[in-house]
Amino acid sequence: MKIKPVVATFLLLSPLTACGSAQAGDSTTVTVTVGYQSKTINTVTAGTLLRSLGYFEKELDALHDGRTYKVDWQDYATGAPITAQMTAGKIDIGSMGDFPLLINAARGKQLGKPTHLVSVTGYNLRGGLNTIVTAPDSKLASLGDLKGRKVSTSVGSAADGTLVRALQRAGIDPDKGIEKLNQQPAVGASALSAGSTDALSQFVAWPGLLTYQGKAKALYDGAELNLPTFHGVTAREDFAEQRPAVLEAFLKAQAEATDYLDAYPVAAAESVAKATGLPPEVVYLYNGAHGISTFDPALKPQLVSALKQDVSVLKAAKLTGDIDVDAFVDDHYVRKALGSGYAKRLAAAPAASASEVWPRGATETQSFKTPVELLKYVSAHQNGIRAAYVPDATTGTLWFADKAVWVADGDRLLPFVAPETARAYVGAHAGARTVTYAQALEQAS
């Protein structure tokens, strides 16, 4: 990782260009522009949740450097426009997924406006943040069934990376074996509902949302790739060098928002849901106590390693050339912002997966050691369940209990996100069989 030298005092006091500059006629007022994606809920600790908590503004007020700071929060649907605004000098700090981060790095270098990855928001070490889904009544049951079919995704996104890698492992040429539709997530979701695409490969929170709404079902769990996926925070190099205290204030605030999410996952989910219009149950699927996402600002080596592996996918798609990931990653600011606590965050592991029930009217969820225990509880309280979540028996990816594929293996009841992994388990275990959710509930009770 690149470690920058301490920035000289004269840089801190020098005038800024673009968004971080003092407003005309007022040398004591500085506007900091933050680009975020409200509905990409893997970035909430640097966006939606952070904004609602007001932690960044509080950290800026605590600088006591004689300036008045204002934060301009700008909401975007994807990372691409954030990158465009950053390279134009109009956004100081942005958050986006791993593949868009690489494009951010490439565009910044290409245009002479370098940026740096300065922290991580949410991640999944196996790749469970991306999912391929089909229509609820689709007959497609495996990746092999996608051959010759229309598949919607957002080219250059992490979800596209998952699609490309998954198809390659299934022996399908991602360029010639399918008809790829390059669409924004909302457009792809509409196309799936209209029947104009056969499948949709997308990032958090679209697969969970469509499944929860009964508009889709999972075909492929991205965690089957066993490759980390994450979202992170990128900052313009000139802004970081000229306003290091401001960037450090942002990273301190992000860490505080992360701690809040960890301590109050239900309240955080409700807050994000209110701000985005997403169902709280969907937000909790990803951001809950045992959700698909783990939030931590530390730039973990395994995430940086995964980023390096992602470069080849973007190069093959002719979206970027070579990218110096080590030069792009800069942990100097987050280390300084978090001090001695950074080492602990860097070493922290994701929480163990567990089954959870969110009872109606409750401000806390209930955890269970096994899916069978959860099913017993649900069976006895069917009218009092807001949502029930279970981890995939092989990948650990959390999913809605009533949307999972269930397998009965003797007294064991095992949930799976996708039908193909369930079939693989049945094929390897004599006597195991798939059952409906209703049958699973009946057997558990």
TrEMBL record:
InterPro entries: SsuA/THI5. Residues 1-24 form the signal peptide. Keywords: Signal. Residues 82-268 form the SsuA/THI5-like domain. The keyword Zinc-finger does not apply. SUPFAM superfamilies: NosL/MerB-like (SSF160387), Periplasmic binding protein-like II (SSF53850). It comes from the Bacteria. PANTHER family: ABC TRANSPORTER SUBSTRATE-BINDING PROTEIN, ALIPHATIC SULFONATES-BINDING PROTEIN-RELATED. This is ABC transporter substrate-binding protein.
